[in-house]
Amino acid sequence: MGERVFNFSAGPAVLPEPVLQEAREALWNIDGSGIGILEHSHRGKVFDRVIDEAVADCRALAGIPDSYRVLFLQGGASTQFFQVPANLLADGATADYLNTGAWSQKAIAEAKRYGKVHVAASSEDDNFCFIPGPGEARYSKRPAYVHFTSNNTIFGTQFRAEPDCPASSFLVCDASSDIYSRPIDVTRYGLIYAGAQKNLGPSGTTLVLIREDLLEKPARDLPTMLRYSTHAENDSRYNTPPAFGIYLMGRVFKWILANGGLEGMEARNEAKAKAIYDVLDASSFYQTTARDDSRSLMNICFRGPNEDIEKKFIKDAAGAGFDGLKGHRSVGGMRASIYNAFPPEGCDAFAQFLRDFEAKNG
Ligand code: PMP
Q1: Range of the domain at 333
Q2: Measured in angstroms, how far is the CA atom of residue 103 from the centroid of ligand 1?
Q3: Do 90 and 225 fall into the same domain?
Q4: Which residue, of 9, 134, 204, 325, is most buried by count of CB atoms within 10 Å of its CB?
Q5: 288-305 burial string, b = 16+ CB within 10 Å, else e?
């Protein structure tokens, strides 16, 4: 097998190597069944175990109480942008959104199809370089819910803690790019959703954690597949679920459990990000783009002195075995995405590359 490089892709992103090795076996023959995971019925005994364990491990990791359901859906986080308001925002009601980047904006645009949206805080005027602080949001009178994006993949900003939320309401979170990268108190939320392809597994599966009472009556008459209750009542098997994605997510949950759980991930992610931010902070050649108090442990966004040097940086980095460092096409510059599975030694090696590149080109 060829060598693997350090993959800084923002998503789909690097997965834990032991998980990939296991999956290789399972593709051929899972659990000695003589059938590969891609070929098993989603209603058979082998898959029963796969999904039951995935749910149990998902719950164990965050201590999710019985009053919440764990769902595996399809359509990516982008489907949640409209499935959330379709289910939870009645005609004429208002949902509050914190606008911290392009993904928040997309969620806002979809919610407007169903009800009113009040933007309670926004960092748009400062090119989304910060996260509104505690107490900065101005909520509407009785928001149906408060939606925020916990980590802004494109701008490299991340909430340090949950925003406050009016007592009459509940939080809804797009946690696509930092789910399970640190401990999370699920009981502070009504609903959490995340596309799997950054911290949890392959694309094509969306994890949804939803408080049970929110399943009771959708805000309107909806197609069967769009109702959360359909998927909850059928344990994510109303129709054929993304079986391989659920399998792989389950293996990733086990890998997280074996590596210190969410506390372990947090310590690992803090140390990884520090190795890179320390070099960027000590340099006047590189500039980080997020405000210090808002920067992300998952996506490190930075600029070089000019665009020509940035192009050379990305090219030289690729030559040295560091892939996927180009910033999102809407913002330019560089972005190092270092989700859970990105190895600490990759961050240390990249920190050295940053120093060497500056010494040669500064
Ligand atoms: N939200 C965030 C924070 C994201 O980073 C992304 C994808 N990069 C999305 C939503 C959209 O996810 P999907 O492609 O699964 O629809």
Answers
A1: 260-361
A2: 7
A3: yes
A4: 325
A5: bbbeeebbbbbbbbbbbe
